[in-house]
Design goal:
201 residues; mainly alpha; AhpD-like; 9 helices; 60% helix; globular; peroxiredoxin activity; oxidoreductase; Uncharacterised_peroxidase-rel; peroxidase; CMD-like
């Protein structure tokens, strides 16, 4: 499951047990990326608060499927197979269109987003790519280009934050050897209306 010790639900008590109760879905599953925080429960709270805010919050205006696409793309760029599989499964569920999902997956796997995207969506993915690979190369011109592509400044912030979140999540996974052993893929706190609902279903 990971290279460091983790505590499962049976071993959890106090604060950790309470957090696990919040994130467990109907099956009781705790995703391994979350369980890896178990020795420091406060970091799990921070992770979940950020995750919920950037991907599953009523205050976001970009389509959730597009935000999941950015996350899958960034995870692929970072070679984080765990996050690619989890978030592509979630993306596929949101799309409810197997052909479109396959087109997107093929484009991501090939590293050629133009195969599945154009216009402003492609511009956002290219920004996410540069932020992931060469963040020091970004300038004000890149923000202006996103505006010209049709994004409002708040939407640019959403793209920035979901990209930054996945940099964090990917490095948590890759740096601690997290793998999907024993997990159902693609569960997430899909209730965007309640920021405090962390349940993964």
């Amino acid at each position: 499951m990971s290279w460091i010790k983790t505590l499962d639900r049976k071993a959890a008590d106090g604060r950790l047990s309470a957090i696990y109760d919040r994130v467990a879905g109907k099956t009781g599953q705790i995703d391994n990326i979350l369980a890896v925080h178990s020795l420091r429960p406060h970091t799990l709270e921070g992770h979940m608060a950020l995750y919920k805010a950037v991907l599953h919050h009523y205050g976001n205006s970009l389509d959730k499927a597009y935000l999941e696409t950015i996350g899958t793309w960034v995870s692929s760029l970072n070679k984080c197979a765990y996050c690619v599989e989890h978030h592509f499964a979630g993306l596929k569920r949101l799309l409810n269109d197997d052909a479109r999902a396959a087109e997107i997956r093929d484009a991501i796997d090939a590293g050629i987003p133009e195969r599945a995207f154009s216009g402003r969506e492609l511009a956002g993915l290219r920004y996410a790519e540069l932020l992931t690979r060469q963040p020091d190369k970004l300038t004000q011109m890149h923000a202006m280009a996103l505006r010209e592509a049709g994004f409002e400044d708040g939407e640019i912030l959403e793209i920035n934050q979901v990209t930054a979140y996945f940099a964090y999540a990917n490095r948590t996974v890759l740096g601690l050897g997290v793998n999907p052993a024993g997990e159902a893929l693609g569960l997430s706190p899909n209730t965007s209306d309640d920021p405090d609902n962390w349940s993964h279903d």
